[in-house]
Specification:
Layout lengths: L3 E5 L4 H13 L3 E5 L3 H10 L7 E4 L2 E4 L1 H11 L13 H25 L8 H20 L13 H15 L9 H11 L2 H4 L8
Parallel strand pairs: 1-2
Antiparallel strand pairs: 1-3, 3-4
Length: 203
């Protein structure tokens, strides 16, 4: 089985998403840490947009977490639910909501880290409101650990758990207000593939 070389960081929720899928598929994953200078040089040499994650898969370079996870599922046997982006509109919509809420949370986090109170500006305030709206929508539709009406683990649940893990890690919002999402997150986060990929801040 060919290994996966992944450019990214241990804190990125999109990188973690790929690492979880790789672990569930039994694919070895070699992480090139882009928080270090050598990792940044590697990233910039292979990606024109300098955005993580980027994967080397054999002789291919694959940009974006969606493309990487879909290739992994298509090419490697696993217990994960199969995903067809043309057919599975419900799952695609769920992932879009997760990603929209996560992107907004990331925007708010970086403004706050630069010393700007997210509540002090209309743009950043809207980002937090978008995240809260996305989480409320997901809270209303989750059933146990499932977001798509299917019982097996799939990309939607992995996207959700990695997003909630990052939101909790960065303390962007208090996920305890979403009781059903929090319960699902805690169960999923105990799974070995999640436990092995939890975000870690550099010392």
């Amino acid at each position: 089985m060919s290994a996966l070389t992944l450019c990214g960081t241990t804190t990125s929720p999109f990188v973690r998403r790929v690492r979880v899928v790789a672990a569930e598929c039994g694919v070895p994953c070699d992480l090139v840490d882009t928080s270090e200078e050598a990792g940044q040089e590697t990233l910039r040499a292979i990606s024109p947009i300098w955005k993580v994650p980027v994967a080397r898969m054999g002789d291919r370079v694959v940009f974006d977490s969606h493309a990487i996870t879909e290739v992994l599922l298509a090419e490697h046997a696993s217990e994960l639910r199969a995903f067809n982006p043309q057919r599975d509109l419900v799952e695609r919509n769920v992932i879009t909501v997760v990603d929209g809420g996560l992107d907004a949370a990331i925007n708010a986090f970086y403004f706050r880290r630069d010393g700007i109170d997210p509540a002090s500006m209309p743009y950043t305030r809207k980002q937090l409101e978008r995240t809260a709206s996305a989480l409320a929508w997901l809270e209303a539709r989750i059933d146990g650990d499932a977001l798509t009406g299917q019982s097996s683990l799939g990309l939607a649940e992995i996207a959700l758990a990695t997003a909630l893990g990052w939101i909790q890690f960065r303390q962007v919002l208090d996920i305890r207000r979403y009781a059903r999402l929090r319960a699902a997150f805690e169960r999923l986060d105990a799974r070995p593939s999640f436990a092995a990929t939890r975000p870690v801040e550099r010392a």
